[in-house]
Amino acid sequence: MAASDSNNPQDEARLTAMIQRWAEGKATLRDVRGYTDDELYAIAKTAYIFFYQGRIAEARTLFQGLYAVNPADAYFAKALGVVEMAAGNPQGALAAYDVALKLDARDAQAYVGRAEVRLSLGQKAQALEDLRRIPALVDADEPLAHKAEAMVTALTQR
């Protein structure tokens, strides 16, 4: 990210206009600060490594920050859902998955993740609803399809 020249009136005016757009909900903090996808995904990679090292608090902090900087990226919301669940916050995980699915309604992984959270909250009917969406979203031979099918079978057996 290039730093602006604070003595340049044009840079200051551009920054002021961008901050106003952010305040109005018409721009993200990513837009204001000029972060690139490469920069944000490098941070996400670090968060992912922290998660798999069991450093849940650090991963959570990074994914919360990434979501705050770029709330339009469904991946950051979905990753936050995973980390919130691992941190023992199923309500936070559910909210994050809800956002991820509002941003990308065809994300099969987000539906399965949300179904797992819903099951942990005792919301079996809603979990089944999410799981039953999977066949329309992924090929039948994909591992995620097999997982969803197995979950539906287990949940519907008497």
Describe the protein:
This is Tetratricopeptide repeat protein. InterPro entries: T3SS_Ca_resp_chp_LcrH/SycD (IPR005415), TPR-like_helical_dom_sf (IPR011990). It comes from Archangium gephyra. The chain is mostly helical. The chain has two domains: 30-89; 106-158, no CATH class. Helices cover 71% and strands 0% of the residues. The termini are far apart.
Key features?
158 residues, mainly alpha, 0% strand
Please summarize what this structure is.
The protein is mainly alpha-helical.
Largest sheet: none
Number of strands: 0
As residue ranges, the low-confidence spans are: none
Give the class from helix and strand content and strand pairing.
mainly alpha
Number of helices: 9
The residue fraction in helices comes out at over 70%
Approximately what portion of the residues adopt beta-strand conformation? under 5%
Give a topology summary.
Blueprint lengths: L8 H15 L5 H5 L3 H16 L3 H14 L4 H13 L3 H14 L4 H13 L3 H8 L11 H14 L2
Helix pairs in contact: 3-4, 4-5, 5-6, 5-7, 6-7, 7-8
